[in-house]
Amino acid sequence: MKVLTDTATLIAILGTSVIYGTDIFCALVLRPAAAGASDASVADLLGRVHEYGDRRLPVPGVLAIVATALAAGTDDSTLGRTGGGIALVSLLLWLAIYLRISAPINKRLRAAAASHTVPADTRQLQQRWDSVIWSRALLQTVALAGLLTLLSS
Length: 153
Prior knowledge:
The chain is built from 5 helices and no strands. By secondary structure, it is mainly alpha-helical.
């Protein structure tokens, strides 16, 4: 069982790390860059960024959630189960924020980029997206910390 738990934990850490790195980059670099860019630039470039991200990032994200659930469910220590449980809750909260707030905005910006239009509320869309990026990054940080307890248990 330890091999299964450790393998699932490593897969979960790798998948979570991809999303963590993306969210940290967005919080530290993309958010302030977008704040200083024109609405047309934000709608076009970020619409295209979300086009690729929304298509490619679900794979590591889903793998992370499934592997975290498997690792937490198969670990035989209280510390590991607790850390894995915290990681799983963090990832599910991240997913809820993403689906409720970020994904609809991404969809609007993707459509704008595809149609070469600039939504009148581009600035408000980006500000709303920006308002949750630090929360998303924090939840990914907590998830990684929880997953690391599975390795040490």
